[in-house]
Structures are given as structure tokens and as C-alpha cells.
Write a structure and sequence with these properties.
By secondary structure, the chain is mostly helical. The protein has two domains: 190 residues, no CATH class; 86 residues. The chain is 51% helix and 6% strand. It has a three-stranded antiparallel beta sheet with strand order 1-2-3, covered by helices on one side. Strand 2 and strand 3 form a beta hairpin.
Length: 284
Amino acid sequence: MGWAGAACNAAAAPANGSPYVVQAYQSEGQSRLTCRRGKTEYRPTRRAADDYDGASDMSLENWHNRMHKHFAALAGQRAACGGGIFALEHGLQGDEIQTLETEVRASLKVRSPSDAFWLPWVVYATEVGYKYDGEEYWQTFEQTTPGWATCRAKPREWLRDRFVGFHKTYKGMRPSGRWASKFSIIAWPIQHAVLPGYLQYHLAKLLYELRFDFTARLLSDPDSLGHYIHAESGRSVQRLQEFAEEHTLVGTIAAALLLSGSELASVSLLPVTLKRLITDLAGC
């Protein structure tokens, strides 16, 4: 599924007839999740009960449970309009992000990444993707995550599989397109970062170049604004052109930036995530 699926209002899913249902339940003391679309059901494996080794997992268990509740609720809200979610929509801010990152790194001193409490790793990898400068994702990841390269067999593939699990469990976005096919692992955390740092610069530059073209009517319609930005994105880098294909998403972000101080409803992102993007874009 591409990025376009994210463009929807955060309306609560109807009690009956929803095309996508997330249900949490308890089994043997472990939080479990069932997701249904029509007659198809996805259920995570029972590794959670077998993979727990006590104190070394306690912090990540707490983070995992918190993130599970958050993403399950968000998936339910987006279900009514068939929209997906980004891992960057984790809802954490400032010190909380730093605390999660510190505890993820600390966990590697005790054990390899756990199949039981994997959501903190998805958020952690997405935050690395948010800082991505367009060059070396894995070099940065390994430099900032001591012990990662040798923590388990094929750690990169393990992380990719956790993002696939995020896609299946919470209806997270799935990378698509030529770039995603060429970089099939890093495409996951970078796409889930929505607009990484190096793309923020290029988008801000493009908006500046187009600043005299934006009319009040265009700014009032994120989808039309996104179409226009996409049509003019050929002057920028290829990755921004690909991002701009998601018209409503890029239009929403651009309008929120250009109309700073206005009350613009987030039609495609968690409000706190949109606010973070706008703040960072304004600093470019």
C-alpha cells in the first residue's frame, strides 16, 4: 500500500461494518492482537510468551504495551476511510523519544532484540529514518546503536520483518515504487518517517521557489495544492518527486507550513506528528 492511503480523517471507526477491525485481548498474561479485514484474520505468533527473560525486557515491555495501545487505537480510527498509519505517528515527544532510544540501546547490552517486544524497535528505527540525510542509513544506525551489527543473525532482515508485522497488525504503510524495490529494507523506516530531514530541506526550498504561485483558493484545498506541488517537483530531487505523488499528504503539510498560525485540521497525520513536521520544516 502506498502513502495515499494515509489521507483520511481521524474519525472513529463504526461499531459495525468496519472494513478493518483491531481487537486486543489477554491470553496467558500476554497482550494479543487480532486484526480482521473481511474474512481474513491476522494474528501474531505466540513467541511473546516464550521469549521473555525477566528484568532485561521490562522497559521494552512497557514501551511495547504503550505503543500497542496507541497504534491499535489509531488503526481503528483510520479504518473507517481505509487509511493507513506511519510509525512516526507514535505520539511521543521530546524527552520521551530520547528515553525510548536510550532504553532500546541499553537493552542490547543484555540481550538480542526480542520478538516479544518489537514495537520500540520499529519506533527507534523510524526515528533514525527521520534523521536520514540521504546517504548511509545503516552506517548511522550502527554507529548510534552499539552492538547492533552482531546482536543476532541477519539483524537487518529481522528489523524489516518487524515493519512487515507493523503493516499487517496496525495497517501501517507499505513501501512501494522503484526506490522501495531497490532498497527493500531501509525503505520501511524511511517511509515511516514520512518526511526525513533531507527531504524537509528540498520541500522547503521548492515551496520558497513557488511562493508567488500560491493563491488563497489553492491553499484552502490540500489535495489541489498537493497536485500543484507534484507538477512542479520535477525541479527537485527524485525522492521528493516520489513523495509529492501523495497529493493530499504533501498538500496538508505544505498548507500547514504556509498558513502558520491557522487552525488547519490534519486529514492525514496525527496532529502532534504534523506539528512536529511543520516545526522542523520552518527551521530549514
